[in-house]
Structure formats: structure tokens, C-alpha cells
């Protein structure tokens, strides 16, 4: 009885090993495809991040320029006010 069980287990193990070997190439191809998709998504995400960082820097410069123009306008108004009073 024990020998029959061991033989059955051995046959089942061989069958499982054969199935695994047969499935492995397909699974590897599937994983490689998924990996390529993830790499493409990562590249797109990186490009978007770089673009947003550049836009952010441009906006910072626009804000700084606007603040400078505002300060110059305030100084000019203040100076005109002092000239009128003086």
C-alpha cells in the first residue's frame, strides 16, 4: 500500500514538473510583456514629471516678474504721490 502511494506521488510530481516546464516559456513571455508595458508607463510618467517641473519653473519666473513689475509700479505711484505733496 505504501509503495503504491509513493509511486503515485512520484508520478504526480513528475507530471507537475513536466507541466511547469511546459508553462514556463509562456509565463516568461507574459512577464516580459508586462515588464515592457511597465517600463513604457514609467518612461511616460518621467516625461510628464519633467514637463511639469519645467512648467513649474516657468510659472515661478512669471510670478517673480509680475511681483517685480508690481513693486516697480507701487514705487512709481509712491514717488508720484511724494512729488505732488512736495
CA radius of gyration is 36 Å
- Please give the share of residues in helix: over 70%
Share of β-strand residues: under 5%
Write down how many β-strands occur, each being a DSSP E stretch of 2 or more residues. Answer: 0
Task: Label the structural class.
Answer: mainly alpha
Head-to-tail CA distance between termini: 118 Å
Largest sheet: none
Helical region count? 1
Uncertain ranges: none
List its salient traits:
mainly alpha; rod-shaped; 98% helix
Written overview of the protein:
It contains 1 helix and no strands. The protein is an all-alpha fold and 86 residues long.
How would you summarize what this structure contains?
The protein has 86 residues and is an all-alpha fold. The chain has 1 helix and no strands. The longest helix has 84 residues, at 2-85.
